[in-house]
Each structure stands twice: as C-alpha cells, then as structure tokens.
What we know:
The protein has twelve helices and four strands, in the order E-E-H-E-E-H-H-H-H-H-H-H-H-H-H-H.
Amino acid sequence: MSTDNNDNMCANCGKGEEGSVSLKACGACTSIRYCSNDCHCQKAHRSQHKKECRKRAAELHEEALFKQPPPRGDCPICFLRVPSLYTGQRYMTCCGKIICSGCIHAGGMAGDDQLCPFCRAPTPLDEEIIERTRKRMEFNDATAIYNLGSHYAEGRYGLPQDMDNVLELWHRAGELGNAEAYYNIGTAYWYGRGVVRDKKKVVHYYELAAMGGDEMARHNLGNAEVRAGNTERALKHYMIAVGSGHDASLKTIQKLYSSGCATKADYMKALKAYQSYLEEIKSDDRDKAAAFNDEYKYY
Length: 299
C-alpha cells in the first residue's frame, strides 16, 4: 500500500501514528513517513519511492545550496557587521570573540603587550596561544578548534605537522559551524594533502562550506560551473558571494558581462549588492585602521 501523500500514515503499510506506533520521515527527501519502530516498511517501499525520493532530495539540496547564508556576526564592540576579508577581523584566543580591525586599532592593539579590546586580557606570547586555544576548545569553540587544526597543518607554535589530526579537527570544527574548516577539507582533497585526491569530495566539502557562508568556496563552485558551461548556475554562486563581500566574484561577473555571458542587469545587480555590503561594514575606525596599515584592510 502506498500513501505518499498522507503525512499521518506510513507510506508502506498505511498505519497511522497511534499507541506504540510512531512515524519517521524519509531521511533523504523528508516528504513521506514510515513506521519508526519497523525498518522493514522503509525497505519494502524503497523500490516505489526511490525515483521520487532522489528527485525531491536533489530539489532540497539545490534550495539549500543557493540560499543566501546568514551574514557573519557583528563585532561585539562596535556592533557593526564583521567584514568578510580576514584582515578586517581578528579572533581573540582569550575570550573567543571576533573583533573588527577598526576596534582592534582604536583599542591600541597595533603593537605587542596590549590588552584585548573586549575582555582586557594581555596579548599572549607564542607559547601561550596553544594553551589558550585548547582552553577555548573546552567550550566547543568552532573557531578555536579550526585554528588548532590550522596550526598543526602549518607546524606553528612548535606543533608537529600532522594531517590526520588536522583533518579530524577541521571536521569537528565544520560540524560545529565553521565553514572555513569545510573549505580547507575540500582544498585538501583537491591537492591530495593527507588524503587521496577526490574531485567529488572537493565539491561536497566546498558546498558545505558555501552553505555555511564561506565566500571562497562559493566562488570556486562558480568557477567550476563556468568551466562546465553552466553560466546560469555560476552566476547564482557569484551573486551570493558578492552579497557577502567577495570582490573577486564581482570582477568575474563583470568579465562575464564584458564577454556577453552575463547581462548588464546581472552586473548591476551584483554591483548594487556589493555596494550594500560595503555600506554595512564601513566605519571611521576601520578606515583609519586600513590607512594605518594594509594588514587592517577590510573591504
């Protein structure tokens, strides 16, 4: 018996949710339900549901992939949107806050032996950075976990280079919401760094990173679509990246427009989105910081 259109009944046996019988959604498409305490129902119904399941699962993936991710959080001091450019922000190992370059500069942290603008902890010595990072990891701080993986990857602060440990930490950070960790895992599969090269896994992890808000992963997915001749899909990726401040995606859309592969309306839409992003992140302190040192550039 098939009851694909009735959410209150098992799609295979037709039983409703009552007494000891509970229903669970199909894990792939979530569109139909089965008896949760009897795995035979889902298996028995698989041949009938497989085609529709794959179609709906693909639709759900597309919806998630091309959904504009939420913007990065606000600086806890000035309450303005944190810039996407890594030079426009700094992670503080003392309190786990991500502070914008403007507040870093205004707080007098241009040199060594300064205090954190947020918690007033002193700037750590190199040997203290790992200790502080591990301390933050006790709170499941995704950025701290990602950073420790990166320190192992580069052999920084006296740590040995250990890609098995790196990938384990990056996977953990990604599961906790750090999109850059997924981007780096994808890049590891691209270059075969600590893993066997696998283009399917590159795409998989880039997609996870892009959905989490990583602009570089999103841009690379766009580039892959251009190479495959899928300009329309590429533009979707670039547009989302531009809205998050990725200027390389804006320049690519401009090139596509110049070559006749994108319309003027596409380029103007991208330009407007990028200008809107700049308006959100701009501040006098950030401008002063960028003028003081290129390391504080944020746009």
